[in-house]
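Priority: low. Protein: Erythromycin biosynthesis sensory transduction protein eryC1. Input follows.
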Amino acid sequence: MKVPFVDLQQQYRSIKSEIDPAILAVLDEAHFIMGPEVYAFEDEFSVFSGVEFTTSMGTGTDAPHIALRAMGIGAGDEVITQSNTFIATLEAIIMAGAKPVLVDMTPDTYNMDPDLLEAAITDKTKAIIPVHMYGQPCQMDEINAIAKAHHLFVLEDNAQSVGAKYKGRPTGSLGDAASTSFYPGKNLGAYGDAGAVTTNNEEWTVRMRMMRDHGSSRKYHHDVWGTNSRLDGVQAAVLHVKMKYIDQWNQQRREAGAKYSEKLSGVGGLKLPTTHPDTDHIYHLYVVQTKDETERDALMKQLQDNDIGVAIHYPIPPHLQPGYTNLGYKLGDFPRAESYAKRIISLPIFPEITDEQIDHVVENIKNFYAK
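Result:
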């Protein structure tokens, strides 16, 4: 039996009767860049996220970059984020002209450790970017309290957790603003690159909407620094269709995660995902830990040899990437992120995964540890 890591083809087939006419309508109306589909999606996503404003973007990396710029963050400033995030979080900070400052993750949820924030704050710090890793929100009360005490902005990185909740409130509404990605493999994914920023700050929204369109509030009049990061109509049409299903799909992910946790409990000493009692985990990824890198790599090989898709999120922490040596970090600076990068493995999970597919993955893992 083949078990893909994600199955975007199956998801497309399940909503093809809605997706195809939605795309054709954009083509018929020639609303290729921005247009009514984009504005309608922004309004819909604002309601979903519990905020007043959504500014769509051309990519999920542009979203935090432009948000930081709108906050007035730039050269000479520092922005704190976590040491196990995807590289795009650091890219956005650097593109805004600021310096990324890293803190380590918690030992259980893979999210930012609030206890490490105070030591990382300097007189140059202007913002904190907590990353809701793998589908689980960060401990936002603690993070927001520290930010408030030091007069810092909080920009959620919500790329992996659209639809998750913290103490009953949706991600995307928990800080001063939030960036997200609609990369195709995300829980709410477009059919190409796309992103957005959600916020209740009208001033930032006005600025971001100019910045994404060459700094322009009207054609050929450029009021502020800008770039080209406009969402196209086709992606907005796709996202509009998918919005009807995101809650259902997230629930199916929760159910799949629960089945994995039940069936893998006590198997081979694997450390399974931990859900904090304040959060609602939507399992963008189902990540387990082995005892060491050798075991992890051998387990991955067995699963791949049996047509089971697996991945590592992420194999090298940002501070150890060759392109980021200028940040001044070294091996040993973030021991949790470094250790976990050698031991984690992401198992297949997507809304359409069947019980038979989960059983096949579990059986192969049990066979591996029975050797």
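The chain has a mean pLDDT of 97. The longest helix spans residues 8-29.
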